[in-house]
Structures are given as structure tokens and as C-alpha cells.
Specification:
- This protein has about 350 residues and is α/β, with parallel strands linked by helices.
- The chain has nine helices and 16 strands.
- About 35% of the residues are buried.
């Protein structure tokens, strides 16, 4: 009796499959997600020092290397007890002035992290003065009462930058102007308006409802009066820096350039702008930069660092916390919280 033929492939054990691409992805994707999450937690808890060099061709020799330490967009965040990480970094950093460029109060309204920031920055290696301007997410200093944050900042030795001030180094002059004072070619026009408002309020009689408005108008008038008095003292060759919260856009830059072209010496003397607000785009991709920034769109080139805007030099700090306009969750992605060290030099960057 003959035995029927049985094909071997029908009865042999099925070969065991190895780890193909599908199985590799099933392990790789979760591992990558865990690694990114772990790095993000680590990265959001540290502070780095970023250095930006700004070239000013007519910078006096005495101001070569003039340095501003900038902190922006704290948004109520803390970096160690009493901002210890910031304090440790500032203590190692020499500078000629410190500026805090807004959005320092968090969504809960607690000003304590901001006060701790001032104290931390005041411990910079050079004991440089600290200046503050509020951001769009902060209570305005001209609200119905003198804000707690402003009172506390002054108590800690910080100064509200509400009009142009002069600093000196080795006999050379440096001017810091808040962007809010770039209102019109001549601040005397706005000053006349506030004086008329004050006189009218006093003529009608001051009561509980008008007292706060009168105090606000008087503070604004005082700042404009200081501004009007100091503008004529800026000389060609002085270093003139505008401190802003929001970066200057092309429309604003075109207006400022038009005033400068009309012969206005104050606007012609501006050398650079310092700004924040964007938190570097908050979410960034390695080698590609910010994914999105309010007002700049997707994959903007200039969400942080140095750039020219219609010929005006501008440096934007990536900041410490989150942007008030960001569409992202609270954390920063591939975007280390930073203090920005802005160095002015006559030497062109490499």
C-alpha cells in the first residue's frame, strides 16, 4: 500500500516571526514619549543664561561691553525656593543694569514670585540697578489704586521705568526709554492734555469717585514732564535703548522710522530695542525653532534672539515662564527658561 505524499510546507511548524518594523515602533514611540516628558520636566525646572551681542557702530569706547541682564515673562513661576536658581545665576553674572520686561504676575495674581525675582536679580555680580516695566498680563500701574506689585517692587529697591532715565559708565551716557513713551514726536502734546484733565477735575471738585482718576492723571503727567525735560539732553553718540514688553512690529517700526526721518533727534538716536512677551514661542522644535508665536504666525524666524525690524535692531528674550497669549499648555517644550544677557559692542558679530 502506497503512502500518500504530504507536502512538507503544510505540516512543518510555522517559522517564528522576528521583531519587524511594526513591533519596533510599538516599543519606540512610548519610549520616546517618556524620554521627551522626562526631559521637559527637567528643562522646565532649570534656568540658562543666553548671551546676545548687539553691534552699535558708533558706540563710545567707554561703553564697549555695556551689559544688560534681562528677565521676562516670569508669569508667577518659581525656580527653586526664593528663586534660588535665578539668584545663583545672577550672582555669577556681571552687568551694568537689570531690566524686567513684564508679565511677571501669574494668573493667580500672587506677586510674591515677582518680589523673589527682584531680590534674586539684585544679587547680580555688579550690584547693578533693577528697572521694571509691566506687561499686558500685569495690573497697570495707573489702575484705581497703587498696585501691590509696584509698592513691593519699590520697597525692594527696583524702579518703575515710566520715563527715559540716564545711566553713566566711565563718563559716557546710556539712556533707557520705556516703549510706552514712544507715543508721538513730542511728549509735550500729551502732557498738555493731562494737565487740562487735571485742572478740569479739580475745578469740578474732588470726591471719592474722582480721586483715583486724578491720581492716575497726575502720575502720567509727572512721567511725561520728566520725559519732556530729558529728551533734549540726549547727544549723538550716546547709547539709547528702548525697553519694551511686546516686540516692535513692522508697522510700529515704520512709524518710528518716519519720525526719525523727519529730523526728530530723539527717534534718530535709538540704537536698539529690548523686548519679551513671546516666551520664545513657548513650544519649539530642535533646529527648527518656534512652532507658533502670536502675531508672527507659524514657524517664525524672530521669536527669540536678535533681529532687525525695518532696520531697527531688536533683541527678544525667550523669557522664564509662559506667554500670556500662547495657545499651548503651561509648560515650555524644548525651550529652556532663560535670563538674557545683552552685550553692546562696536565689533560686528561673527
Amino acid at each position: 500500500m502506497s503512502r500518500a505524499y504530504k507536502p512538507r510546507e503544510l505540516y512543518s511548524p510555522r517559522p517564528r516571526r522576528g521583531f519587524g518594523p511594526r513591533w519596533i515602533l510599538m516599543f519606540l514611540i512610548p519610549a520616546l514619549a517618556v524620554a521627551v516628558a522626562a526631559y521637559t520636566v527637567f528643562d522646565n525646572g532649570r534656568v540658562v543664561l543666553a548671551t546676545v551681542r548687539v553691534t552699535v557702530s558708533n558706540l563710545p569706547a567707554a561703553l564697549e561691553g555695556f551689559t544688560i541682564l534681562q528677565a521676562s515673562d516670569l508669569a508667577g513661576a518659581r525656580f527653586g525656593p526664593n528663586q534660588r536658581l535665578i539668584s545663583d545665576l545672577a550672582a555669577k553674572t556681571s552687568c551694568d543694569a537689570v531690566v524686567i520686561t513684564g508679565d511677571f504676575i501669574g494668573p493667580d495674581g500672587d506677586a510674591q514670585p515677582f518680589f523673589e525675582l527682584i531680590t534674586a536679580l539684585s544679587r547680580n555680580a555688579s550690584s547693578a540697578p533693577v528697572f521694571v516695566i509691566p506687561g499686558d498680563a500685569d495690573p497697570a500701574p495707573d489702575s484705581e489704586r497703587l498696585n501691590d506689585w509696584l509698592t513691593g517692587a519699590r520697597r525692594l529697591g527696583a524702579r518703575l521705568l515710566d520715563s527715559t532715565i540716564q545711566l553713566t559708565k566711565k563718563g559716557a551716557a546710556v539712556w533707557l526709554t520705556p516703549e510706552t513713551m514712544l507715543l508721538e514726536p513730542d511728549p509735550a502734546d500729551a502732557l498738555a492734555m493731562f494737565r487740562a484733565e487735571i485742572a478740569d477735575t479739580r475745578a469740578r471738585g474732588v470726591d471719592r469717585t474722582t480721586r483715583a482718576a486724578l491720581e492716575n492723571a497726575q502720575r502720567a503727567a509727572d512721567a511725561l514732564e520728566r520725559e519732556a525735560a530729558i529728551r533734549g539732553t540726549i547727544q549723538p553718540g550716546d547709547l539709547h535703548i528702548v525697553v519694551a514688553h511686546r516686540p516692535v512690529d513692522t508697522a510700529r517700526a515704520a512709524l518710528l522710522n518716519a519720525w526719525a526721518a523727519s529730523g526728530n533727534a530723539f527717534y534718530r538716536s535709538i540704537d536698539a530695542f529690548l523686548a519679551g512677551h513671546l516666551a520664545g514661542g513657548q513650544w519649539r522644535l530642535p533646529y527648527l525653532g518656534a512652532i507658533y508665536a502670536p502675531g508672527l504666525g507659524f514657524f517664525p524666524r524672530d521669536a527669540a534672539g536678535f533681529a532687525y525690524v525695518d532696520g531697527l535692531a531688536q533683541t527678544i528674550s525667550a523669557g522664564l515662564g509662559r506667554s500670556s497669549d500662547t495657545p499651548y499648555p503651561w509648560f515650555r517644550l524644548f525651550n529652556s527658561p532663560e535670563l538674557t544677557r545683552v552685550v553692546f559692542t562696536r565689533e560686528a558679530a561673527d
